[in-house]
Design goal:
heterodimer; A: alpha/beta; Rossmann fold; Fumarate Reductase Iron-sulfur Protein, Chain B, domain 2; six-stranded mixed sheet; four-stranded antiparallel sheet; 32 helices; 16 strands; elongated; B: mainly alpha; 3-methyladenine DNA Glycosylase II, Chain A, domain 3; Alpha-Beta Plaits; two-stranded antiparallel ribbon; 5 helices; 4 strands; 33% helix; disordered C terminus
């Protein structure tokens, strides 16, 4: 029994099943040597002309390139470079229709030849024996050589076979009709092909090299045999003409009797197949240093006048090839790329020649008839007989039509080489191969989707897991937070120690402060997180308490406002203005119900506390004034408490920030102003904020400290707010007590008169509880005034008069008018007496004026605002001591006060009162109208 | 006496088989419902929720529990048919009148309009969108399942569902491009 090798050496050939004998049609194009074409107008070079990945671009639009210059650099993944087929300029890099039945655009380099056809520097190699495999493979790789038989598999990958190669099979069969490219190449360049074989021989070291050529090419066989005579390992085999003996698997079977396993490659059985065109390209690359930039293309068909083989530069448009060979198209002209059996009809002739283009067939409609209508399968089994792969084409056809993809795979659809033999023999003209191609594409797509779905599922699961983990971590963090607090406390302790150290250094009292710091640190250790926050905490508590109070006030508030309250409120406001001018603000709009009054009182109390806390108690005036302001001015008592609370908190801050703060005059006045202007209670908060800001500034600016007057005023204020007559007496008493204190604090003893007057006043107030609030307010205003005046001791005369006035007012309502008149007279006098203090007179006038408006409580707020605006103006004008304007106002004022009192008078007096009130109202309205424009300012 | 023998023999047999079966039940225990796995394998895993379940597996479980098989628009008729075969029910047209062969789409973010809100990132069931807060986001086309869950949350509507471009690899021969008439 001969071994396989012996059998092969003896020239034995085997048979593959099936196969057909179509008309060869080769004589038209193989009669002349391969010709050269003129340079085309432009070259379209797709980046990808093979199986595998693109190279990365090396050139930009506008670059000038030389012939043979690499345009792309190969990366991984079976990528190959493409080279400039001639010298020229890169005109564009853009997607162009590809050499594919779909002509789907692919990224291509458009090269405009410059006509010089200038090569780059070449590095040919004379002796390959000095190079190792890697170097040779690298040369083949960089030359961009891909299988030129049709598939375009990168040759360097094949040459770098990890498996030992027993037989190198050279495919010079060219079984497909019409094509003669390999035939002509073998005839013209047999020597070079054999040299190319020897390169691969050195790399692969196969036992034998089998060169298969169909017996219809005797000239090629002769040429190759002559060229390969020197190499005993090259066995040239003439094989019987049969389609598709040029198929890789069929040729392997023919020459070696081995069968390539299903879905395998020839390398699996130690065989490697290379096309003659590829071998010629290898020779060129190695021995001439030229990359793959051109190939032999058969241009043939009945519509071509000079069918021939041509050297076509890669990227040459098919149209250029056809035109150069004399193309005269017929109706419904088809141009086929590849052979009639396996080629495809081009959708356009503006498609470039690529590395795998071996034939352009331009047949007329007689030689390659348009396929007729598909008829029913008659189950003749001719297709099965013709199939070189021993498949069952008819079965596959049914499954393909029914889209039974699993069945198709079961019947080895993927072993089909799409040779078209079945379609060729089918008497019913069923395009079997087309069905298989579609089915294959579908299955491939499905598998791809399966893989994708699998990946999506994985990613989905991974994401789910991640989200769960994150959630868990979050929960754990919450749990861990509490036990970890000791650690945090320790950290804070450290920080605090560090701070303490810093302070030690900075201050002279380092020892004391260090001690404090240490104490604090210890406290921190004991569990208190932030010892320094205690002050803030206290503040917060206070704020909370206030909020609570405010809530209560809100819920239990009585909405109805009676006239009396309004009057009282107006009077209170008037006094507040006075106070403001006097540098002590006390505006009391007589909160509409008990609760608000209480809240306001508390607010004030706190303000006082804050004032006391302030080391240098100068700023007190600023704070209380603000606090009271906000409560007073805000017509809506509900918001009053809130505003007051905020105001207080800020006032405290301001007080602390102020180092030396004396300018009570500045701050309160400003504060009052701003609040006064606010006709809309909603803007009260805003105004308060502004006022606060001003107060702070003022406090900082202030340099001297004289605020004894402040506290009493505050005390009085608080009593003002009390609208409830029952509490009036108490409040009045308190007010008095404070006033006394203030008086005592006063350095000079002029105030005895004041006190007594107040005392009297307060007792008076109690007589008629309703008037108590009013009286008290007046008293307070006076007390303030007095306090201030005490400093200069000039105004003593003024105060008693006022005191009397107030007592008068209250004593008997009937005498009120008279008393008021007297009071006014005295006030005028006093005003005149006051040389330096013009404002004193100005303010009361305003105050009373504002009460006028209260006759109509609804207009009270508006009027008050107007009055305030005027007061400001007046205050400014008063700086230059022009009292003439003041007095008439005072007159008016007096009538107003009378009117206010009349409200409470007996019916007899009421008539008069009504008249007076009417007059007063009319005046108030006039004024209001006059001042409407000024109000916002 | 014969009766006793018979009883003993049967009792012994019952005992032996009982032990064998009990052992087999433990040894060859099936962890999860195998039919769910099979259904899940058929579903397209877009995780789009168009079936009304939060993901493909929940729908697979629902089908195993008797839900309709025609609620998967991304799968198209092919999936319905496969599910119907597997479950032994009749294949129905897709619920909601969806097209039988859905066009494969992927999300595309118009990147200059993206404000970097990360809402789409949170919506994506397969983590196919990359980006960070106030940074431009983009879609990993290879990982996108075309579920369009990211379109709705986008506050600036900068996400489009774009049909996947055909390449030479995904191209199919057009049977109707050659004169073919179906003969059945």
């Amino acid at each position: 029994m001969e071994t396989l090798l012996e059998q092969i050496e003896s020239g034995k050939l085997w048979q593959f099943p099936g196969g057909i004998h179509p008309p060869e049609q080769k004589a038209q194009s193989n009669q002349h040597p391969i010709s050269r074409l003129p340079l085309p107008e432009k070259l379209i070079l797709p980046l990808k002309q093979h199986i595998g990945a693109n190279g990365s671009l090396l050139v930009n639009v506008g670059d000038h390139v030389l012939k043979g210059q690499a345009l792309t650099a190969p990366g991984t993944n079976w990528s190959l470079p493409v080279h400039a087929p001639t010298s020229g300029v890169v005109e564009a890099i853009t997607p162009m229709p590809s050499a594919h039945p779909s002509a789907i655009p692919e990224l291509s380099i458009i090269l405009r030849p410059d006509g010089a056809d200038k090569w780059i520097e070449l590095t040919p190699i004379r002796d390959i024996s000095s190079l190792d495999n890697a170097q040779l493979i690298e040369i083949i790789h960089q030359a961009g050589i891909a299988g030129m038989g049709g598939a375009g598999f990168p040759t360097y990958v094949k040459a770098d076979s990890p498996k030992p190669i027993e037989f190198l099979v050279i495919n010079g069969v060219e079984c497909e009709p019409y094509i003669t490219a390999d035939d002509r190449l073998m005839r013209d360049h047999a020597q070079q092909i054999v040299s190319g074989i020897e390169v691969l021989q050195q790399i692969l070291k196969p036992q034998k090299i089998l060169f298969g050529i169909e017996d219809n090419k005797p000239e090629a066989i002769a040429a190759v045999s002559a060229a390969a005579k020197h190499n005993q390992d090259i066995l040239v085999r003439s094989i019987p003409t049969k389609y598709p003996s040029g198929g890789e698997k069929q040729l392997v079977k023919l020459l070696t009797s081995k069968e390539v396993p299903s879905t395998g490659i020839p390398a699996d059985i130690g065989v490697l197949v290379q096309n003659v065109g590829t071998l010629f390209a290898i020779w060129q690359a190695v021995f001439e240093g030229k990359p793959l930039i051109e190939r032999v293309v058969t241009v043939t068909g009945n519509t071509i006048s000079q069918p021939n083989n041509v050297w076509a530069l890669l990227g040459t448009e098919i149209k250029h090839l056809l035109d150069s060979q004399g193309f005269s198209p017929v109706d419904a002209q088809r141009v086929v790329m590849g052979g009639p059996m396996m080629g495809f009809t081009l959708p356009s002739v503006r498609i470039p020649v690529v590395k795998t283009t071996n034939c352009i067939l331009a047949p007329d409609n007689k030689e390659l008839a348009i396929p007729g209508e598909e008829k029913a399968c008659i189950r003749c089994s001719a297709c099965a007989d013709a199939c070189p792969q021993s498949l069952l084409p008819q079965q596959l056809q049914w499954f393909a039509k029914g889209k039974e993809y699993e069945k198709l795979e079961e019947y080895n659809l993927f072993d089909c080489i799409e040779c078209g033999a079945c379609s060729y023999v089918c008497p019913s003209e069923i395009p079997l191969v087309q069905y298989y191609r579609v089915a294959k594409a579908d299955i491939r797509e499905q598998k791809l989707e399966q893989v994708k779905a699998e990946r999506a599922k994985e990613r989905f699961e991974a994401r789910k897991a991640r989200l769960e983990r994150e959630q868990e971590e979050r929960q754990n963090k919450h749990k861990r937070r509490s036990p970890s607090s000791p650690a945090k406390a320790a950290e804070q302790e450290k920080v605090q120690e560090a701070l303490a150290r810093v302070k030690d250094k900075q201050s002279d009292k380092s020892a004391v402060q260090a001690a404090i710091a240490r104490a604090k640190a210890k406290r921190g250790e004991n569990g208190e997180l932030e010892p320094d926050n205690s002050a803030i905490m206290q503040e917060r508590e206070k704020r909370k308490a206030q909020a609570r109070k405010y809530k209560e006030a809100k819920t239990e508030q009585v909405s109805s406002v009676d006239q009396k309250d309004a009057v009282a409120a107006a009077i209170a406001r008037a006094k507040a203005k006075k106070a403001a001018a006097q540098e002590q603000v006390s505006s009391d709009q007589a909160p509409e119900d008990k609760k608000t009054a209480v809240a306001a009182a508390i607010a004030r109390a706190k303000a006082k506390k804050a004032a006391k806390q302030a080391e240098e108690a100068n700023d007190n005036t600023a704070e209380p004034s603000e606090a009271v302001q906000s409560t007073g001015d805000v017509a809506d008592p509900r918001k009053a408490a809130v505003a007051a609370a905020i105001a207080r908190a800020k006032a405290k801050k301001a007080a602390k920030q102020a180092e030396e703060a004396n300018d009570n005059t500045v701050e309160p006045s400003e504060a009052v102003q701003s609040t006064d202007d606010v006709a809309d209670p909603r803007k009260a908060a805003v105004a308060a904020a502004i006022a606060r800001a001003k107060a702070k500034k003022a406090a900082k600016q202030a340099e001297e400290a004289n605020d004894n007057t402040v506290e009493p005023s505050e005390a009085v204020q608080s009593t003002d707010d009390v609208a409830d007559p029952r509490k009036a007496a108490v409040a009045a008493a308190i007010a008095r007590a404070k006033a006394k204190k203030a008086a005592k604090q006063a350095e000079e003893a002029n105030d005895k008169t004041l006190e007594s007057s107040e005392a009297v006043q307060s007792t008076d107030d109690v007589a008629d509880p309703r008037k108590a609030a009013v009286a008290a307010a007046i008293a307070r205003a006076k007390a303030k005034k007095a306090a201030k005046q005490v400093e200069d001791t000039n105004d003593n005369t003024l105060e008693p008069s006022e005191a009397v006035q107030s007592t008068d007012d209250v004593a008997d309502p009937r005498k009120a008018a008279v008393a008021a008149a007297i009071a006014r007279a005295k006030a005028k006098k006093a005003a005149k007496q006051a040389e330096d203090t013009n404002d004193n007179t100005l303010e009361p006038s305003e105050a009373v004026q504002s009460t006028d408006d209260v006759a109509d409580p609804r207009k009270a707020a508006v009027a008050a605002a107007i009055a305030r605006a005027k007061a400001k103006k007046a205050a400014k004008q008063a700086e230059e001591a022009n009292d003439s304007t003041v007095e008439p106002l005072e007159e008016q004022q007096s009538t107003d006060t009378e009117q206010a009192q009349l409200d409470t008078q007996t019916p007899e007096a009421r008539k008069k009162a009504a008249v007076k009130a009417a007059i007063a109202k009319a005046k108030a309205k006039k004024q209001a109208k006059e001042q409407e424009g000024n109000e916002p300012s | 006496m014969t009766l006793m023998y018979a009883l003993l023999a049967l009792g012994a047999l019952a005992l032996v088989f009982g032990i064998v079966l009990g052992y087999a039940a433990v040894k060859y225990r099936v962890e999860s419902n195998p039919i769910v796995e099979q259904i899940d394998a058929i579903l397209p895993q877009t995780q789009c929720g168009q079936c009304g379940y939060p993901g493909c597996r929940p729908y697979a479980e629902a089908i195993a529990n008797g839900d309709e098989v025609n609620k998967c628009p991304p799968g198209g008729e092919a999936t319905v048919k496969k599910l119907a075969d597997l479950m032994g029910v009749e294949a129905k047209p897709l619920a909601g009148g969806e097209e039988a062969e859905p066009v494969k789409k992927v999300a595309y973010i118009r990147e200059d309009e993206c404000i970097g809100c990360t809402k789409c990132i949170q919506a994506c069931p397969v983590d196919a969108i990359v980006g960070a807060t106030r940074q431009m986001h983009t879609v990993l086309i290879d990982e996108c399942t075309g579920c369009d869950l990211c379109v709705e949350p986008c506050p600036v509507d900068c996400i489009d569902m774009v049909p996947v471009a055909q390449t030479k690899q995904t191209w199919k021969w057009q049977l109707d491009a050659i004169p073919v008439t179906q003969i059945d």
